[in-house]
Amino acid sequence: MTICVAYGPTPEGAAALELAVRESRLRGAPLVALATERQERFDADAHEAGTVRADLESRLAELRAEGDPAADVHVIDDGGDPAEAILDLAAAEEAELLVVGVKRRSPVGKLLTGSTAQRIILESPIPVLVTHAAR
Hints:
Elements: E1 2-6, H1 11-27, E2 31-36, H2 52-63, E3 71-76, H3 82-92, E4 95-102, H4 107-112, H5 116-123, E5 128-132
Parallel strand pairs: 1-2, 1-4, 2-3, 4-5
Helix pairs in contact: 3-5
């Protein structure tokens, strides 16, 4: 069993990564962390803007403990639909669980606003574990 996590440089992405590391450890399953190229440069206004890959690798190093199952990072360099790219890579990795973080929204916001996470949840052929960022 492989666990995949869809990561973005947001509090929700950090929560998803933390949950995925715990699930990987609990199940003894390898972890694959996924991010999209579209997110590759973020926080352009910050003094030290970084890359999603560097941020993801740094967060993984902080969360993982000695003896944890293997972890790998993939940055998808697909300029197209991020939900489709994440689902395609999860399928290529033969993942059996996909972890995503979602923003808290009102019922009306959920009705009117689409999102990458929502598409992943609705279109994934494998179980999706959803988490929120801590308030």
